[in-house]
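Assess this:
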Amino acid sequence: MNLKRTAMALGVAAVVAGALGAAPTAALADAIIKVDGSSTVFPITEAVAEEFQKAKKGKVKVTVGVSGTGGGFKKFCRGETDISDASRPIKEKEMAACKEAGISYIELPVAYDALTVVINPKNTWAATMTVDELKKMWEPEAQGKVMKWSDVNPKWPNAKLALFGPGADSGTFDYFTEAVNHKEKASRGDFTASEDDNVLVQGVSRDKNAIGYFGYAYYAENKDKLKAVTVVNPATGKPVAPSEKSVEDGSYAPLARPIFIYVNAKSADKPEIKEFVEFYLKQGPKYVKEVKYVPLPQSAYNTSLDHFKKKKLGTVFAGKGAVGVKINELLAREAKF
């Protein structure tokens, strides 16, 4: 797992798993598996890929790129990749693009994430925030108007807001805007955006007045540089910190979310890809926990493995978002698939 931490710390935007020397060059590999997509899912896939390459002793090479969920689906629906990492379900327009290109796919949930709002450790005033305060800060109408912390809450300092967030190709951006602003991609535009979460980590860690958001694994890797915001659950009125427990019990709402891999159905016929995906579903839970995401119940991985073997095509989300979907609800959908 040191390779993962090195890659994340350096802010690598597109990483070839094992390219730091652990795996052979492409010329020596018998087969190549191409993965791209979400930076949120990347730490899991990168760890699984590294171990799979070791198990195959150089016979298979797995490349793992990070172009964001949206960017990954663009490549996937053009037939350029075998597997797409996604921090949200596939959208209707992406389903249409895949259909037009003749790309069928198998949707496999691999973990739950606590999408984490982070502030600088020197921030002493916004350790707890409501969803309404986040909306007031991030909604499109805030641009050019909500420029200081005191504009969000008069009790907060008269200090300039420094906003950091994922770019428009990010599934995290899509999920956050839908969960907080109630409309996907509806966001102010005057913030520092990057598909590389490490850029966001560095930005928030260097500015006392900064705030940003990304997947929990990137916060967990940088707890010495960042502080996680406790978010008030709108239904209960109780502040809840992002954690494995709060995701499992459903209290970290509305920012807990399922994350996925999508497998090209034709690629799944290739022995090396079939073996890799089965390895992912069997060994992945260990790495999910190690990189600080929340593993699904074992029954969910068993169901996904069964769906993969039977080539259950399509999605259980019908092209819609997954805001508010708890683990038990996801399992119910999967069971009926």
Observations:
- The chain has a mean pLDDT of 90.
- The domain at 2-112+258-336 is CATH 3.40.190.10 (D-Maltodextrin-Binding Protein; domain 2).
